[in-house]
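User: Show me a protein chain along with its predicted structure.
Assistant: Here is one chain, sequence first, then structure tokens.
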Amino acid sequence: MTGKLIVIPVYKKGDKSDCNNYRPISILPTCSKVFESIIYDQISDFIIQNNVIPKFQHGFSKNKSTFTNLLDVTNLIAK
């Protein structure tokens, strides 16, 4: 892997001759995407198996959201 990206300007709106009306999109090489996915899965499995994240932590956790966090808090208050 060389660490190089292909950056493509994508038009947003406004005058097409104004560079501020474009946003850069980087195209990652396929190998980088596969490598990232493998590393993510291994780290995620380790975190789950070793209870690194407390059970009340819902942000950035699989199958959890602010809604599930709200349900947990509501259930605690109801007890």
